[in-house]
Amino acid sequence: MVQVTFKVRRFNPETDEKPYWQEAQLDVPDTERVVDVLRLLKGKHEGWSGLAFRASCVHGICGSDAMLINGINRLACKTLVRDVGTSITVEPIKGLPVKRDLLVDMEPFFASYKALKPWLITNGSAPQKERLQSPEDREVFDDTTKCILCGACTTSCPSFWANGEFLGPATIVNAHRFIFDSRDQGSKERLEILNQKNGIWRCRTIFNCTDACPRDIQITKAIGQVKKAIMFGKA
After folding, report:
1. How much is the CA Rg of the chain, to the nearest whole Å?
2. How far is it, in rounded angstroms, from Cα 169 to Cα 151?
3. How far apart, in whole angstroms, are the C-alpha atoms of residue 209 and residue 148?
4. Residue 151 contacts residue 160 (beta carbons within 8 Å)
């Protein structure tokens, strides 16, 4: 067991004029996950019962519990106490409106995602059987299929903080997944969207997104490949 000082940035728009920090000290195993500490605080500690945050599968698959933990975007369900030390601060991810405490409004994020038409676009009649693809063709975009839409990459991006209209890394990653899919025929349309004012050129190649990704997707590499596709056409 270790004694942990846990500080959470709280905000209830119905009662608070501005955010404030709430602090607690508690003894937990160093193998405890941050999400479990939040649940412990909410369920058993006086003054914490109204703490708001998202957590669904708590196994790093749904992506719902992305938070700013000790200044870095992480999934609370994959972050152990021993990973971040005995003084832990937790804040909502940046760049999206805070609805309450650690709960942010994800609608702008998903609106950008939907704008790129994240589904297979094909012309003509449906085939009589599945659309086959070689392992080599699949490998081209395999990395970007790992995205769980947690928002950790987009909300770690200074360009997104400065301009919330920027489509953001997660949207570009999911566009990459279809642009380089040999079965898809919607690449031209997606590349035109990405080539607009709030599209891919707002990326400044800072690599925050790659560092923040809990699935270790090579996001900056994928963004570079999409930029080349816009300039020179798909390889």
Report:
1. 20
2. 9
3. 14
4. no
pTM: 0.93
3-state secondary structure of 106: coil
What domains can you pick out in the chain, each with its CATH number?
2-104 (3.10.20.30), 107-232 (1.10.1060.10)
Q: Which of 43, 77, 52, 50 is nearest to 63 (CA)?
A: 77
Tell me which amino acid residue 74 is.
Answer: R
Q: Residue 74 pairs with which residues in a beta bridge?
A: 67
Pairwise CA distance, residues 154 & 198, whole Å: 13
Looking only at Cα atoms, what is the longest distance across the chain? 63
Continuous segment of H or E residues that includes residue 99: strand 98-100
Distance between CA atoms of residues 144 and 230, nearest Å: 18
Q: What is the dihedral of CA 189, 232, 163, 88, to 10 degrees?
A: 110
The predicted-structure confidence for 38-97, as pLDDT tens digits, reads as follows 999 999 999 999 999 999 999 999 999 999 999 999 999 999 999 999 999 999 999 999
Give dist(CA 40, CA 1) in Å, integer.
15
